[in-house]
Amino acid sequence: MADQTTSIRLVRVDDAEIIAAHRARDRRAYAQWEPAQPDEFYTTAGQRARIEGLLADHRRGDRWPAVIVAEGEVIGQVTVSTILRGPFGKGFLGYWVATASQGQGHATRAVGQTLAVMRRDLGLRRAEAHTRLENLASQHVLRANGFRPWGIAHAHILVDGAWRDEIFWERLLDEGPPLTRA
């Protein structure tokens, strides 16, 4: 049975070590989905610097960077980036879960909780995301949280040495399934 205690919280600098361990261990598994990163990205120091940058963006109101926690352990991240206020009222959602914790519903629950944060705490009306055409697991997470596909961007992202197509997804935060409390 899947763990029902999935939660999210703002990322902290002291999360760098566990995030680096997950990312280093899962480096090959994520190579098919994410752009290449320098070797430093997979180290505690590299993650510490990245997290400090995320938190600086958060203080400016440009990003909401969180970790996904299950049974008291950080198992992934979920981030709202490219936050646009005013007439757009939207943010871009990205997430990952360590391979050892995949397939247990953590991403689906974390995304649902993040959508509630986007609406309630960030005052946003719209969430957007992208997935590779082949990433059926991520598409399932988005569909389960009320996202709808709205287009395909051809040659949108350079991953694993080639330009890849991506599906664009949207969720109006006042429509669809009820938002989960974080």
Automatic annotation (TrEMBL):
The keyword Acyltransferase is annotated on this UniProt entry: yes
Pfam families, sorted: Acetyltransf_3
Protein name (Swiss-Prot/TrEMBL): N-acetyltransferase
Residue ranges constituting the N-acetyltransferase domain according to the UniProt record: 6-170
Annotated family: Belongs to the acetyltransferase family. RimJ subfamily.
Signal peptide range: none
Organism this protein belongs to: Microbispora triticiradicis
UniProt keyword Ligase present: no
